[in-house]
Amino acid sequence: MPSRPIHQVLSDRPFVSVPADTPVREVVRQMSALQRSAALVTEHGVLTGIFTERDAAFGVLAAGLDADTTPVGAVMTHNPVTLTEDRPFGHALHLMYENGVRHVPIVDANRRPLGVVTARDALQLDALTFGAELVRREEITVIL
Fold it and tell me: Of the four listed, 95, 106, 137, 144, which is most buried by Cβ atoms within 10 Å?
């Protein structure tokens, strides 16, 4: 499954994309509404950063910043590593491991956001494999 192209992993699911001047509270509201753990931050439609749950917890809450007045661009991770949608999902996993991140933005040739792949996507693949293995073991047990 890690050899699947990223566009198959994304499968047209919605993602949060906001301008850098958007207040943090609004970004978190959008993330919550879509049940997403990250938002892609853009300037003129081009990816410039990523804002994650960890940025909200450590960069805003722990720092005592006002979520209503702090723009997401002030607390985002600038210039995140990215991939294009034609790359295999395994490459995204490798980038996550090598860079110690849990999210990899997917962009087009002009760095316009197309979505985000997450470490959770890898866990979902493992869960499918694990489920199939459990079924196989049950079948073997019934046969024996």
Answer: 106
Nearest to 75 by CA among 28, 111, 30: 28
The pTM for the full model equals 0.82
Q: Per-residue pLDDT tens for 116-140?
A: 999 888 766 554 565 566 667 677 7
Report, in this order, helix, strand and coil percent for the chain, each rounded to 5. Answer: 45, 25, 30
CB 116 within 8 A of CB 129: no
The Cα–Cα gap between 45 and 57 comes to: 26
Cβ-count burial 71-99 (b if 16+ within 10 Å, e if not)? bbbebbbeebebbebebbbebbbebbeee
